[in-house]
């Protein structure tokens, strides 16, 4: 099919492929793009305590985690904080302008905050150093370097990978002076209690489901849905910003596929972490 036809009638162009159960980029409807590049280190961003770069097809996202010390709030005296933020700088795609975060960045930040909260991936009590006095704050900055659709899967993946690479120094409070003493020589990994993984689908013509949509596919779709599951096949959240409604059977299909995807991503992260552990 000609490029001209794709430009003039993009939806019709897509439909001809979908009829044959494939997509213009050669993938089957249920096939994910290759997660070709995935790297982690507690030093790839020198100012971060943990970081990860994830590439899903052309979509490229980096996550840096910075840990700082703060006093816990009065009503959560035994808890630390996790503060996520997703950014789409104008260099990652022509669809984003420079300036304050737009609607899409705000929605993505909220999605990541919900994933952290609903999955209980980190118990906030684990971030407390001294009850009512001192706790860790984890600032998780997720920046999109190249946007080609399915930013939520890539962001959730980068967040999980970056958190798994974090090493926090041991901190004690000096009883006499009341000041905190940080021992940078003694570091411990964060305790990750759950491994939530997001799996996104685009809905075509209200009925067809395709997995891991590109930016073009998202634009042509009649809706999108993102399903988040964890290690115990538990459904952590379903994110569906409007668009075509899904039948119960279709949603169940999404959940089943998301459970399989969670296991694949967890295996991939574990493999990479094992390879960077100091021998």
UniProtKB/TrEMBL annotation:
SUPFAM superfamilies: Ribonuclease PH domain 2-like (SSF55666), Ribosomal protein S5 domain 2-like (SSF54211). GO terms for cellular component: cytoplasmic exosome (RNase complex); nuclear exosome (RNase complex); nucleolus. InterPro entries: ExoRNase_PH_dom1, ExoRNase_PH_dom2, ExoRNase_PH_dom2_sf, Exosome_comp_Rrp42_subfam, PNPase/RNase_PH_dom_sf, Ribosomal_Su5_D2-typ_SF, Rrp43. Keywords: Acetylation, Cytoplasm, Exosome, Nucleus, RNA-binding, rRNA processing. Its main location: cytoplasm. CDD domains: RNase_PH_RRP43. It comes from the Eukaryota. The keyword Acetylation applies. GO terms for biological process: exonucleolytic trimming to generate mature 3'-end of 5.8S rRNA from tricistronic rRNA transcript (SSU-rRNA, 5.8S rRNA, LSU-rRNA); nuclear mRNA surveillance; nuclear polyadenylation-dependent rRNA catabolic process; rRNA catabolic process; TRAMP-dependent tRNA surveillance pathway; U1 snRNA 3'-end processing; U4 snRNA 3'-end processing; U5 snRNA 3'-end processing. Residues 39-169, 196-259 form the Exoribonuclease phosphorolytic domain. It is found in: Cytoplasm; Nucleus, Nucleolus. Pfam families: RNase_PH, RNase_PH_C. GO terms for molecular function: mRNA 3'-UTR AU-rich region binding. Belongs to the RNase PH family. This is Exosome complex component RRP43.
């Amino acid at each position: 099919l000609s490029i001209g036809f794709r430009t003039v009638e993009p939806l019709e162009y897509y439909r001809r492929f979908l009829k044959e159960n494939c997509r213009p980029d050669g993938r089957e409807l249920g096939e994910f793009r290759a997660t070709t590049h995935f790297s982690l280190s507690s030093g790839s961003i020198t100012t971060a305590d943990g970081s990860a770069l994830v590439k899903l097809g052309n979509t490229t996202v980096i996550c840096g985690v910075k840990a700082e010390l703060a006093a816990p709030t009065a009503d959560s005296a035994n808890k630390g904080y996790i503060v996520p933020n997703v950014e789409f700088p104008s260099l990652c795609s022509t669809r984003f302008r420079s300036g304050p975060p737009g609607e899409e960045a705000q929605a993505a930040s909220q999605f990541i905050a919900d994933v952290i909260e609903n999955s209980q991936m980190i118990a906030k009590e684990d971030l407390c150093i001294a009850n009512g006095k001192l706790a860790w704050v984890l600032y998780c900055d997720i920046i999109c370097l190249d946007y080609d659709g399915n930013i939520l899967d890539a962001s959730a993946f980068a967040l999980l990978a970056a958190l798994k690479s974090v090493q926090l120094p041991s901190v004690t409070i000096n009883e006499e002076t009341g000041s905190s003493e940080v021992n940078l020589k003694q570091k411990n990994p964060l305790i990750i209690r759950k491994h939530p993984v997001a799996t996104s689908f685009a809905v075509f013509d209200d009925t067809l489901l395709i997995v891991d949509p590109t930016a073009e596919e998202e634009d042509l779709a009649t809706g999108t849905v993102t399903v988040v599951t964890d290690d115990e096949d538990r459904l952590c959240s379903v994110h569906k910003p409007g668009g075509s409604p899904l039948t119960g059977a279709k949603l169940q299909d999404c959940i089943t596929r998301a459970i399989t995807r969670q296991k694949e991503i967890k295996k991939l992260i574990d493999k990479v972490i094992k390879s960077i552990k100091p021998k």
